[in-house]
């Protein structure tokens, strides 16, 4: 009796880890950094580097394994992907391979009796909430890098600070919106991000995003920047719709401003020019965090 998990441990993991170790070393990781990223010892990394670990040729040549290795290596090297997300992505591929795919075939080769059955080993759901949440956090990180790498972004941060938020596909409240704890602030001309994106930490920008969705807009991300007539004009010149709303409206001002607008661009701006005790502000909303970040960055290249 041979379990498919043994195929995973003895065939998939050594092959996948050795391929990933090579990709990380190619991206400038030290042996210690590779070991930390993979959660293994430096001696194991050394064995991978010197070809002392047997690898499965079928797995080595599979394009899906190659694509995952490259994607995980890119994510870990840029910081867009956490070890948790890397683990989840690898687990999803493993479960896919187990269900009548490559690992199932290897399993049958080593245990021919299995070929008589059509049953699938459904262990992990590829559409799991964990996987989706990690992808949203990764998207926010990419958007943040676009903003913070843009020269002059700090000058667009309002007094209350900026935040970049993105929600799950079907959010039910702010707990389903990932953003930056403590917001992004201008510290001596430098945009400062205090910590990694988390869910449920933004009430302000998350509420605007959720209200826009309540109004029927298919948006998943929002960022707030300071208000200035020239900023609004620049956004419109770049092809983005800009809608003014009344912060003192008796009902939800975002819903009120968007309820009768069916002709909006996919990425658009909402703004208010200030009221008593309320700072003037601009919001850019769109399908994901990198997209709204690029819209904001376009203001800095005018």
TrEMBL record:
PANTHER family: HTH CRO_C1-TYPE DOMAIN-CONTAINING PROTEIN (PTHR40730:SF5), TRANSCRIPTIONAL REGULATOR PROTEIN-LIKE PROTEIN (PTHR40730). Residues 20-48 form the HTH cro/C1-type domain. One of its GO terms (molecular function) is DNA binding. This is Helix-turn-helix domain-containing protein. InterPro entries: Aldolase_II/adducin_N_sf (IPR036409), Cro/C1-type_HTH (IPR001387), Lambda_DNA-bd_dom_sf (IPR010982), ThiN (IPR019293).
């Amino acid at each position: 009796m041979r379990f498919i998990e043994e195929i995973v441990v003895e065939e998939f993991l050594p092959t996948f880890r050795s391929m990933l170790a090579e990709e990380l070393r190619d991206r400038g990781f030290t042996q210690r950094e590779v070991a930390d990223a993979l959660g293994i010892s430096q001696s194991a990394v050394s064995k991978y580097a010197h070809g002392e670990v047997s690898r499965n040729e079928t797995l080595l040549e599979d394009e899906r394994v190659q694509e995952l290795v490259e994607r995980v290596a890119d994510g870990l090297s840029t910081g867009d992907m956490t070890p948790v997300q890397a683990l989840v992505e690898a687990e999803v591929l493993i479960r896919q391979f187990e269900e009548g795919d490559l690992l199932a075939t290897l399993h049958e080769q080593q245990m021919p009796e299995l070929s008589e059955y059509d049953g699938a080993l459904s262990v992990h759901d590829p559409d799991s909430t964990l996987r989706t949440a990690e992808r949203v956090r990764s998207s926010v990180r990419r958007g943040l890098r676009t903003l913070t790498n843009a020269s002059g972004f700090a000058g667009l941060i309002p007094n209350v600070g900026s935040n970049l938020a993105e929600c799950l596909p079907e959010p039910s409240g702010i707990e389903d919106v990932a953003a930056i704890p403590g917001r992004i602030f201008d510290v001596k001309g430098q945009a400062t991000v205090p910590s990694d994106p988390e869910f449920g930490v933004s009430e302000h920008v998350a509420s605007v995003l959720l209200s826009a969705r309540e109004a029927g807009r298919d948006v998943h991300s929002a960022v707030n920047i300071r208000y200035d007539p020239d900023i609004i004009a620049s956004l419109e010149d770049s092809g983005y719709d800009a809608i003014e709303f009344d912060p003192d409206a008796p009902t939800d001002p975002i819903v009120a401003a968007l309820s009768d607008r069916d002709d909006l661009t996919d990425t658009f701006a909402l703004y208010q020019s200030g009221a008593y005790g309320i700072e003037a502000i601009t919001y850019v909303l769109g399908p994901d965090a990198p997209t709204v970040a690029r819209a904001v960055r376009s203001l800095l290249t005018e």
